[in-house]
């Protein structure tokens, strides 16, 4: 059995259409939407609406962790734009989702990332794509558990939830063979981004579940340039499956 796993797709529909080649199934750990590409500021919803110069400024402020100033910039730009904010964002997200969901092979098992908008997914998930969040599925004799979204941060991305709500989803999975999430367990080597030079939020509930239930694998994404891409916690192999938007390569899991 061979399963390919991707995360942090961020608009890369071309490579996504080939991500399942040679595999029995594809798993997607979220972040389909591209609001702003930190490597190429001309890509994403934000520069489409406000231009590259404003995207440059927003990235500068966020990288410097000047989040209040970044939010002030956003409010000013939206006030100057002659269009309803919600309508503009929803239209752009729907255009991206239409292309990305059409690229999923059959079968695909997917969960949400922190920049995704879950309420749109039923509109685009076709037969052959199973969306799971706080739920389990058996694939090739192994039980896979899925936990979507991220924890609350100053970035205020669309699908951030409280630690308590996140922990409840982890608890609902019980014992699984493969624990799949968008964010990593709360381990410094797995949460530190070496390019952004900051710690992203990892989940203590995931870490506790790994130590308690000892799945074979814990698979995740979210941290684009991690200090450590994989490490072992007790008997569990923890793997950051990679920043698919930039690599275009899935992680392969075989058994």
TrEMBL record:
PANTHER family: CALCINEURIN-LIKE PHOSPHOESTERASE DOMAIN-CONTAINING PROTEIN, METALLOPHOSPHOESTERASE. Coiled coil: none annotated. The lineage of its organism: Bacteria, Bacillati, Actinomycetota, Actinomycetes, Kitasatosporales. This is Metallophosphoesterase. Residues 1-226 form the Calcineurin-like phosphoesterase domain. Pfam families: Metallophos.
């Amino acid at each position: 059995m061979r399963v390919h796993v991707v995360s942090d797709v961020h608009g890369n529909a071309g490579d996504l259409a080939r991500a399942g080649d040679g595999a029995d199934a594809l798993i997607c750990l979220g972040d389909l939407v591209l609001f702003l590409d930190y490597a190429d500021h001309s890509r994403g919803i934000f520069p489409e609406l406000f231009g590259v110069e404003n995207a440059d400024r927003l990235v500068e402020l966020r990288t410097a962790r000047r989040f209040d100033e970044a939010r002030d910039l956003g409010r000013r730009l939206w006030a100057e734009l002659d269009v309803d904010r919600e309508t503009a964002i929803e239209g752009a997200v729907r255009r991206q989702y239409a292309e990305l969901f059409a690229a999923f092979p059959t079968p695909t098992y997917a969960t949400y990332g922190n920049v995704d908008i879950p309420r749109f997914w039923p509109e685009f998930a076709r037969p052959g794509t199973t969306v799971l969040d706080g739920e389990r599925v058996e694939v090739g004799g192994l039980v896979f558990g899925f936990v979507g979204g991220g924890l609350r941060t100053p970035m205020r991305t669309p699908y951030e939830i409280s630690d308590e709500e996140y922990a409840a989803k982890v608890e609902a999975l019980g014992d699984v063979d493969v624990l799949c999430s968008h964010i990593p367990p709360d381990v410094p080597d797995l949460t530190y981004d070496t390019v952004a030079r900051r710690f992203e939020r990892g989940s203590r509930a995931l870490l506790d579940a790994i130590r308690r239930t000892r799945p074979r694998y814990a698979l995740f994404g979210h941290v684009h340039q991690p200090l450590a891409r994989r490490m072992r916690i007790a008997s569990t192999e923890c793997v950051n499956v990679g920043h698919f938007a930039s690599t275009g390569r899935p992680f392969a899991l075989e058994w």
